[in-house]
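User: Fold this one for me? It's YQGE family putative transporter.
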Amino acid sequence: MIGHLKKEFEYFKSMPRDMRVLLITNMIYALVLPIIEIFVSAYIMRSLNSPRAVMIYQITVFTGIPITFVLNGYLLRRFSVKGLYSLGMLLSGVSISAMMYLPELNIIQVALSGLLMGISYGFFWSNRDFLAIETTVDENRNYYYGLETFFYTITGIAVPAGIGLVFVLTSRFGLLEGDAVAVYRLITVGVFALTVLSSIVVHRGNFKNPKVDRILHFRFSMLWKKLLVLSSLKGLAQGYLVTVPAILVMQMVGDEGALSSVQSISGLLTALLLYVLGRVTGPEHRIYVFSLGYVIFFVGAVVHSVLFSAIGVIIFIMCKVLYQPLHDMAYFPIQMKVINYLCDKDGRGEFSYIVNHEFGLYIGRFTGLALFIGLDAFISEVFAIRFSLVFIGLFQMLSILLARHIIKETSS
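Assistant: Here's what I get for YQGE family putative transporter.
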């Protein structure tokens, strides 16, 4: 076992230095992401008991992201990519604190906190996407994303389990005077510490700023338009994946402790599967990994809809935990290969494609969240919670055929 771990560590050390620095930075920040993606929504549900408020929060988050992608492009002309990357990570801690240290929470404060979180995400993801393209090549991207998503999944196990334990101890033994809000505020302290540490690490890399000339383009090749459709289909589910699990568990299973347990248990198998896939698969296997993720998501959505019970929720979240990293592990290398292919062909900088891609995601995210809010408003909250995921799953199955076509075109 020790020999195998040493072998894997030596393989990691054989990767380019800047790629390793970026991976370590993202691994540290991965400890923050479960808090942002799971417990912020749970906090809003605890405070306002309103799925619609959670969706409004996510809409403002997703609105802030593409705006900041564009702003980041202009700032990169004057500031370092490392500094802006750090700013994004630090702002996420500010956003969580701004919400959780308010004496009372209302819908306007939820929306403003969401917008600030969207700005932090915009700085984080726009610079992360560029650095990932610059520090990897097509041959090692399966390994890069396999290792990165492996750690994201591990933290998706450990962080919810640790936070869930704190909630249980708080309730059972009266720690922090039994105050759940005090637990959330304690969590924000840990978030700040981790964002500072990840910011320090990223400055150890020798990263160069991207070439930024014209940021916004409106005419693209047919291949890029196909990828934008693929990104919109990806975005359909993204809003749901950071909001619906918290809503389902808080309403149908229990409390934050139950939410933590479901996330942690379902993540263990995924973590092992991802690392193995990252090591043994190559570019030719991406469509199979991609397809498997979507099939798992659809199966989970159908089971949840049919059972519509605590068991159905648990099965869906297990499927969701499997789907998301499998999808990302295949999707990001496909996206990067298309960007590399078109940059060589059309002579544009990578950053203009990164910005434009985010608008494709935004269209999907907004459409998906609007679907939930529309079903909630015009039919019923129960109908939206029960059937919206099935609609999303059906639409996303179209992605498999489109991704296969894109892969074939960039390989020719």
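One thing worth pointing out: The radius of gyration is 20 Å.
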